[in-house]
């Protein structure tokens, strides 16, 4: 038996199997796609919080319905009487309860507070026809988000579109594949940043 030849053949076979495995792993196309759920009830920096104050005794001119408060870079909002209050990272319900506790009974004998999202945004940058911030109007996907910016430029690398999640996660999307199969068209959430790179 030619042991030297057998060892050489087995070595080549193992190397071929290893190369094939690396190609599949690196492509990302065959990885199982996990569903992504937007954390739509979490307040983020750069968004607007819409607060309504009801049932306060007297006619305090500062209070009223549907007042918008921007969430500043330090994560706070500036509300009547309380001034700076931390908001980023909290849910709307948690902030509602916190404000209720801070206002009643220190400032008002009774008060009803309702908090809901104001304008929420995502951004698209890179090789699109009109990059910039877009208002998040509800459920959307990476292809729809890019279409809202006029679509890809002729120099766009559609196979390696990057989603930088507001949560800190990163995803790479093959938008050519997503155009053919909706399961690859990943959801976009408030605060997400989409980057379309240039083809080399």
Structure report:
By secondary structure, the chain is an alpha+beta fold. It folds into two domains: 70 residues, wza like fold; 77 residues, Outer membrane lipoprotein wza domain like (Outer membrane lipoprotein wza fold like), CATH 3.10.560. The strands form four sheets. It has a five-stranded mixed beta sheet with strand order 7-6-12-9-10. A three-stranded antiparallel beta sheet has the order 2-1-5, covered by helices on one side. A two-stranded antiparallel ribbon has the order 3-4. β6 and β7 form a beta hairpin. The longest helix has 25 residues. About 12% of the residues have low confidence.
Topology diagram in text:
Blueprint: H1 3-27, E1 48-54, E2 67-70, E3 76-79, E4 83-86, H2 92-103, E5 112-117, E6 121-126, E7 132-135, E8 140-141, H3 142-147, E9 161-164, E10 170-173, H4 175-180, E11 187-188, E12 193-196
Parallel strand pairs: 6-12
Antiparallel strand pairs: 1-2, 1-5, 3-4, 6-7, 8-11, 9-10, 9-12
Which term fits the overall shape?
elongated
Q: What assembly state would you assign to the polypeptide chains in this entry?
A: single chain
Global Rg: 25 Å
The CATH class label of the largest domain is Alpha Beta
Discrete helix count = 4
What do we call the CATH homologous superfamily of the largest domain? Outer membrane lipoprotein wza domain like
Write out the strand line-up for the largest beta sheet, numbering strands in chain order. Answer: 7-6-12-9-10
Task: Return the string of H and E elements.
Answer: HEEEEHEEEEHEEHEE
Approximate strand percentage: 25-35%
- Uncertain stretches: 6-30
The chain-level structural class is alpha+beta
Q: Roughly how many Å apart are the termini?
A: 51 Å
Q: Compute the number of strand runs.
A: 12
CATH fold-level name of the largest domain: Outer membrane lipoprotein wza fold like
């Amino acid at each position: 038996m030619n042991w030297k030849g057998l060892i050489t053949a087995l070595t080549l076979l193992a190397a071929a199997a290893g190369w094939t495995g690396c190609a599949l792993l690196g492509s990302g196309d065959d990885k199982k796609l996990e569903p992504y759920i937007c954390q739509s009830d979490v307040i983020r920096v750069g968004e607007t919080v819409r607060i309504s104050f009801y049932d306060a005794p007297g006619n305090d001119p500062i209070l009223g319905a549907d007042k918008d408060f921007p969430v500043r870079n330090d994560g706070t909002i500036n509300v009547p009487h309380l001034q700076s209050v931390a908001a980023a990272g909290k849910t709307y319900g948690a902030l509602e309860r916190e404000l209720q506790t801070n206002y009643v009974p220190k400032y008002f004998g009774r008060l009803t507070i309702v908090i809901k999202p104001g304008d929420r945004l995502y951004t698209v940058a890179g090789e699109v026809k009109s990059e910039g911030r877009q208002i998040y109007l509800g459920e959307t996907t990476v292809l729809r988000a890019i279409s809202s910016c006029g679509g890809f430029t002729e120099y766009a690398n559609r196979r390696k579109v990057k989603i930088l999640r507001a949560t800190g996660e990163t995803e790479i999307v093959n938008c050519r594949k997503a155009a053919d199969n909706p399961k690859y068209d990943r959801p976009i959430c408030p605060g997400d940043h989409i980057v379309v790179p240039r083809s080399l």
